[in-house]
Amino acid sequence: MYHLKKFNVTSGKYRKLFSSVAKVIDVSTDDKTNITRVYLQRPPVNSLNSHLLTEISYIMDDLEKTKCKGLVLTSNIVNIFSAGLDLTEFYKTDIQKLSNFWTTLQNTWLKLYTATFPTVALINGHSPAAGCLLALSCDYRIMLSPHYTIGFNEAKIGIPAPFWFIEVMQSIIGSRKTELSVLTGQMYKTDEALAIGLIDETAINLTEAESKVNSFFKNIIAFPGKSRSLMKKDCRDHIVQKFLLKKDEERELVIEFIMNPKTQKNIELYFKALQNKV
Ligand SMILES: CCCCCCCCCCCC/C=C/CC(=O)SCCNC(=O)CCNC(=O)[C@H](O)C(C)(C)COP(=O)(O)OP(=O)(O)OC[C@H]1O[C@@H](n2cnc3c(N)ncnc32)[C@H](O)[C@@H]1OP(=O)(O)O
């Protein structure tokens, strides 16, 4: 059974929360503000496997319980925010493992998307596919410029982005831009992402990004009561309700689609292309 332990690591400002043995995330909370930073750190590319998703899920539970005032989701891996789902979870797998993986993904995403506290993605590296979803599921996005990319590239792998990925993107950039984006598997550079509204701000380095993160929280932290979280719920509820209605059916469709030999071949080819790139 997993339990989060908290203890002070320094005399002052930050306390660290340690997760399970292999630390695929690092978590630290500012004692003064009760804002928590979660750093993804699963080498080489922060791909989201069952283990990493489960860790994120536990942290989300813990942050809800401890009345967290804000979450900053970011990465400890140079140049990578997250490479999206770990494709090894899809390749040469079995139905039970795939079903468990998909359920973990669904449940973890729901916790992030419906977090009652404000969430910011500090996107300090490439962020394709489910990496992009992680960022889009936060309340605010600040991305380092100029050379990182973000977007739903699933079309290029030969697997469709799930409906809720698409609906989250639609809620942020609108239907037409989303359609163009997902059907072409478009990956956007930081400035392009800003221009279409996929991210909220850019920063030229981490110092500037952190300062923008702090301004975001400063602006909202003094709001009294629960009005913010209630309105966030209202803004997102149509997606959440549809997701809850369809999540079991979707899992079955995903299993059927991924286990299909043609899909397996596409994933294999994609892996080879990734490994052979110059
Ligand atoms: C009626 C029918 C209805 C059907 C409905 C069904 C619906 C089905 C839905 C199915 C689900 C679809 C959802 C998918 C969401 C996803 O997230 S899929 C994952 C997509 N991710 C990517 O495509 C990212 C690919 N990676 C990259 O582009 C690059 O690696 C990078 C830009 C992130 C980093 O580049 P670089 O720093 O140059 O590192 P690399 O050398 O490329 O990679 C290092 C190492 O990591 C491996 N790797 C990279 N990404 C992944 C990954 N996502 N999963 C697993 N492994 C990954 C890469 O192969 C390298 O490995 P080696 O060192 O060569 O062994």
Overview of the structural elements:
- This protein is of the alpha/beta class and 278 residues long.
- It has helices at residues 50-65, 95-113, 130-136, 154-157, 163-173, 175-184, 190-196, 206-221, 227-259, 261-276; strands at residues 5-8, 14-18, 25-30, 35-40, 70-75, 79-80, 119-123, 125-128, 140-144, 149-151, 188-189, 201-203.
- It is built from 10 helices and 12 strands.
- Helix content is 50%, strand content 18%.
- α1 packs parallel to α2 and α5 (163-173) packs across α6.
- The strands form 2 sheets. The protein has an 8-stranded mixed beta sheet with strand order 1-2-3-4-5-7-9-12, sandwiched between helices.
- Ligand LGD76KDA binds next to β6, β8, α4, α9 and α10.
Question: How are the strands of the biggest sheet laid out side by side?
Answer: 1-2-3-4-5-7-9-12
Question: What radius of gyration results from the CA coordinates?
Answer: 18 Å
Low-confidence stretches: 1-15
- The coarse overall form would be globular
Approximately how much helix is present in the residues? 40-55%
Percent strand equals 15-25%
Number of strands: 12
DSSP summary: helix tally = 10
What is the averaged pLDDT score? 92
